[in-house]
Amino acid sequence: MASSTSSGSRLVFPIDPKKKPGEQKLPLHNRWHPDIPPVAEVKTGEVFRVEMMDFSGGGITKYYTAEDIKHADSSLVHYLSGPIRVTDADGIPAKPGDLLAVEICNLGPLPGEEWGFTAIFDRENGGGFLTDHFPRATKAIWYFEGIYAYSPHIPGVRFPGLTHPGIIGTAPSMELLNIWNERERTLEETGLKSLKLCEVLHSRPLANLPSAKSCVLGKIEKGTPEWEKIAREAARTIPGRENGGNCDIKNLSRGSKIYLPVFVEGANLSTGDMHFSQGDGEVAFCGAIEMSGFLELKCEIMRDGMKEYLTPMGPTPLHVNPIFEIGPVEPRFSEWLVFEGISVDESGRQHFLDASIAYKRAVLNAIDYISKFGYTKEQVYLLLSCCPCEGRISGIVDAPNAVATLAVPTAIFDQDIRPKSNKVPTGPRVVRNPTIPQCTYDGNLPITKNPSAAT
Amino acid sequence: MASSTSSGSRLVFPIDPKKKPGEQKLPLHNRWHPDIPPVAEVKTGEVFRVEMMDFSGGGITKYYTAEDIKHADSSLVHYLSGPIRVTDADGIPAKPGDLLAVEICNLGPLPGEEWGFTAIFDRENGGGFLTDHFPRATKAIWYFEGIYAYSPHIPGVRFPGLTHPGIIGTAPSMELLNIWNERERTLEETGLKSLKLCEVLHSRPLANLPSAKSCVLGKIEKGTPEWEKIAREAARTIPGRENGGNCDIKNLSRGSKIYLPVFVEGANLSTGDMHFSQGDGEVAFCGAIEMSGFLELKCEIMRDGMKEYLTPMGPTPLHVNPIFEIGPVEPRFSEWLVFEGISVDESGRQHFLDASIAYKRAVLNAIDYISKFGYTKEQVYLLLSCCPCEGRISGIVDAPNAVATLAVPTAIFDQDIRPKSNKVPTGPRVVRNPTIPQCTYDGNLPITKNPSAAT
Amino acid sequence: MASSTSSGSRLVFPIDPKKKPGEQKLPLHNRWHPDIPPVAEVKTGEVFRVEMMDFSGGGITKYYTAEDIKHADSSLVHYLSGPIRVTDADGIPAKPGDLLAVEICNLGPLPGEEWGFTAIFDRENGGGFLTDHFPRATKAIWYFEGIYAYSPHIPGVRFPGLTHPGIIGTAPSMELLNIWNERERTLEETGLKSLKLCEVLHSRPLANLPSAKSCVLGKIEKGTPEWEKIAREAARTIPGRENGGNCDIKNLSRGSKIYLPVFVEGANLSTGDMHFSQGDGEVAFCGAIEMSGFLELKCEIMRDGMKEYLTPMGPTPLHVNPIFEIGPVEPRFSEWLVFEGISVDESGRQHFLDASIAYKRAVLNAIDYISKFGYTKEQVYLLLSCCPCEGRISGIVDAPNAVATLAVPTAIFDQDIRPKSNKVPTGPRVVRNPTIPQCTYDGNLPITKNPSAAT
Amino acid sequence: MASSTSSGSRLVFPIDPKKKPGEQKLPLHNRWHPDIPPVAEVKTGEVFRVEMMDFSGGGITKYYTAEDIKHADSSLVHYLSGPIRVTDADGIPAKPGDLLAVEICNLGPLPGEEWGFTAIFDRENGGGFLTDHFPRATKAIWYFEGIYAYSPHIPGVRFPGLTHPGIIGTAPSMELLNIWNERERTLEETGLKSLKLCEVLHSRPLANLPSAKSCVLGKIEKGTPEWEKIAREAARTIPGRENGGNCDIKNLSRGSKIYLPVFVEGANLSTGDMHFSQGDGEVAFCGAIEMSGFLELKCEIMRDGMKEYLTPMGPTPLHVNPIFEIGPVEPRFSEWLVFEGISVDESGRQHFLDASIAYKRAVLNAIDYISKFGYTKEQVYLLLSCCPCEGRISGIVDAPNAVATLAVPTAIFDQDIRPKSNKVPTGPRVVRNPTIPQCTYDGNLPITKNPSAAT
Question: Could you tell me the superkingdom of the organism this chain comes from (chains A, B, C, D) (predicted)?
Answer without folding.
Answer: Eukaryota
